[in-house]
């Protein structure tokens, strides 16, 4: 229970469904603020208090579990090291993989609980599958509300984690959840949503990274190597970025420039025209499957951002027999601003097939970088 409206209603619905429910708030900040400084922040003392008041109203036990150190190691430090290596990570996927459905679930199981329920907008559906023990398999599917669907950030869950997960909000829209919270008398019914990235409350990712990695001035160059300006550290830029470049030399045709690549080894940021951003081939590693592993070439939908468009594609899983797995995804159309470190989540209709961390991108007929 984060202290927000979604997890409050999720707890209430699980209770209504006849489950024995215990509320748990995760203390993820090592120095939690007393009050929220913005809608981006979370895990404050205020949030813990809001969660406790909901639990009291529901009449369920409530605990605060300190996972700040684990969150720091598995999410925050991973985020820093990925940017330092020139990649663009998604900390929400890492938090779901390492904290909410690993550390939290492991502790819950050790204490005798059966499953974890959260306020994510997604659906779990049981389907008949004679190949699995018991003949039933749980599938992760998109939420009914496309505007709030969070199946993308849950694409890192494997079949075992999915078997012990509940998402009771997946059949509702956000306005319906707020109306239900108000009807139940929850004080959080109108509380603003928190936004990514939760541990960077002011939203200044580049400034936050500079505080961790330091200022490292280096050149901003065009694709021919001509120096156009200077930056404070290549780790503060990501593919597709347009704003904040501070270029003093305009393009010959006056068109805007975008970051097309970064190299943290040489501390160089390369910019170019918009047409250089499009890719239609993605290679991914760190494969995570929500169910059966795809065999051979499979037609899928591919999504590379939490609220991005799903693109028709063909995926082929490579590796196995001791060889680290990779997936190669051929998109039916080019997509802009795809960077290594981001995640690609694969769908079969509304079902989440699995996910991979993007290792390289390119175009058909050209080398993949």
Automatic annotation (TrEMBL):
<dbReference type="InterPro" id="IPR004506">
    <property type="entry name" value="MnmA-like"/>
</dbReference>
<feature type="site" description="Interaction with tRNA">
    <location>
        <position position="342"/>
    </location>
</feature>
<dbReference type="InterPro" id="IPR002328">
    <property type="entry name" value="ADH_Zn_CS"/>
</dbReference>
<feature type="binding site">
    <location>
        <position position="26"/>
    </location>
    <ligand>
        <name>ATP</name>
    </ligand>
</feature>
<keyword id="KW-0694">RNA-binding</keyword>
<feature type="region of interest" description="Interaction with tRNA">
    <location>
        <begin position="148"/>
        <end position="150"/>
    </location>
</feature>
<keyword id="KW-0963">Cytoplasm</keyword>
<protein>
    <recommendedName>
        <fullName>tRNA-specific 2-thiouridylase MnmA</fullName>
        <ecNumber>2.8.1.13</ecNumber>
    </recommendedName>
</protein>
<dbReference type="GO" id="GO:0002143">
    <property type="term" value="P:tRNA wobble position uridine thiolation"/>
</dbReference>
<keyword id="KW-0819">tRNA processing</keyword>
<comment type="function">
    <text>Catalyzes the 2-thiolation of uridine at the wobble position (U34) of tRNA, leading to the formation of s(2)U34.</text>
</comment>
<feature type="domain" description="tRNA-specific 2-thiouridylase MnmA-like central">
    <location>
        <begin position="208"/>
        <end position="272"/>
    </location>
</feature>
<dbReference type="GO" id="GO:0000049">
    <property type="term" value="F:tRNA binding"/>
</dbReference>
<keyword id="KW-0547">Nucleotide-binding</keyword>
<comment type="similarity">
    <text>Belongs to the MnmA/TRMU family.</text>
</comment>
<dbReference type="Pfam" id="PF03054">
    <property type="entry name" value="tRNA_Me_trans"/>
</dbReference>
<dbReference type="GO" id="GO:0005524">
    <property type="term" value="F:ATP binding"/>
</dbReference>
<keyword id="KW-1015">Disulfide bond</keyword>
<dbReference type="Pfam" id="PF20259">
    <property type="entry name" value="tRNA_Me_trans_M"/>
</dbReference>
<feature type="domain" description="tRNA-specific 2-thiouridylase MnmA-like C-terminal">
    <location>
        <begin position="282"/>
        <end position="358"/>
    </location>
</feature>
<dbReference type="GO" id="GO:0103016">
    <property type="term" value="F:tRNA-uridine 2-sulfurtransferase activity"/>
</dbReference>
<keyword id="KW-0067">ATP-binding</keyword>
<feature type="active site" description="Nucleophile">
    <location>
        <position position="95"/>
    </location>
</feature>
<dbReference type="GO" id="GO:0008270">
    <property type="term" value="F:zinc ion binding"/>
</dbReference>
<feature type="site" description="Interaction with tRNA">
    <location>
        <position position="120"/>
    </location>
</feature>
<dbReference type="InterPro" id="IPR046884">
    <property type="entry name" value="MnmA-like_central"/>
</dbReference>
<feature type="active site" description="Cysteine persulfide intermediate">
    <location>
        <position position="198"/>
    </location>
</feature>
<dbReference type="GO" id="GO:0016491">
    <property type="term" value="F:oxidoreductase activity"/>
</dbReference>
<dbReference type="GO" id="GO:0005737">
    <property type="term" value="C:cytoplasm"/>
</dbReference>
<dbReference type="InterPro" id="IPR023382">
    <property type="entry name" value="MnmA-like_central_sf"/>
</dbReference>
<dbReference type="Pfam" id="PF20258">
    <property type="entry name" value="tRNA_Me_trans_C"/>
</dbReference>
<keyword id="KW-0820">tRNA-binding</keyword>
<keyword id="KW-0808">Transferase</keyword>
<feature type="binding site">
    <location>
        <position position="119"/>
    </location>
    <ligand>
        <name>ATP</name>
    </ligand>
</feature>
<dbReference type="InterPro" id="IPR046885">
    <property type="entry name" value="MnmA-like_C"/>
</dbReference>
<dbReference type="InterPro" id="IPR014729">
    <property type="entry name" value="Rossmann-like_a/b/a_fold"/>
</dbReference>
């Amino acid at each position: 229970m984060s202290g927000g409206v979604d997890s409050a209603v999720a707890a209430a619905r699980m209770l209504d469904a006849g489950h024995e429910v215990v509320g748990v708030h995760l203390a993820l900040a090592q120095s939690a603020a007393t009050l929220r400084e913005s809608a981006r922040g979370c895990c404050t003392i205020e949030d813990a208090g809001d969660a406790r008041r909901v639990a009291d109203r529901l009449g369920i036990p409530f605990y605060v579990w300190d996972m700040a150190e684990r969150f720091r190691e598995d999410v925050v430090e991973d985020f820093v090291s990925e940017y330092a290596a020139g990649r663009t990570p998604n900390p929400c996927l890492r938090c779901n993989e390492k904290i909410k459905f690993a550390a939290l679930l492991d502790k819950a199981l050790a204490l005798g609980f059966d499953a974890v329920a959260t306020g994510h907008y997604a659906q779990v559906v049981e389907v008949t599958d004679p190949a699995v023990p018991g003949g039933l398999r749980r599938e992760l599917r998109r939420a009914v509300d496309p505007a709030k669907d969070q199946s993308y950030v849950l694409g890192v869950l494997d079949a075992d984690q999915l078997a012990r997960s509940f998402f009771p909000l997946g059949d509702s829209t956000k306005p319906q959840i707020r109306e239900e919270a108000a009807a139940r008398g929850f004080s959080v019914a109108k509380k603003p949503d928190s936004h990514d990235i939760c541990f960077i409350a002011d939203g200044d990712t580049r400034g936050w990274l500079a505080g961790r990695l330091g200022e490292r001035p280096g050149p901003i160059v065009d694709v021919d190597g001509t120096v156009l300006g200077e930056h404070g550290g290549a780790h503060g830029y990501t593919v597709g970025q347009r704003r904040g470049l501070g270029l003093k030399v305009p393009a010959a045709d006056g068109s805007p420039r975008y970051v097309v690549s970064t190299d943290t080894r040489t501390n160089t940021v390369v910019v170019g025209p918009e047409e250089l951003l499009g890719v239609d081939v993605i290679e991914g590693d760190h494969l995570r499957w929500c169910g059966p592993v795809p065999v051979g070439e499979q037609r899928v939908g591919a999504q590379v951002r939490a609220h991005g468009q799903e693109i028709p594609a063909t995926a082929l899983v490579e590796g196995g027999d001791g060889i680290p797995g990779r997936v190669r995804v051929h998109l039916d159309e080019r997509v802009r601003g795809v960077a290594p470190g981001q995640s690609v989540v694969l769908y079969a209709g509304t079902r989440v097939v699995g996910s991979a961390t993007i290792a390289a991108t390119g175009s058909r007929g050209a080398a993949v970088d």
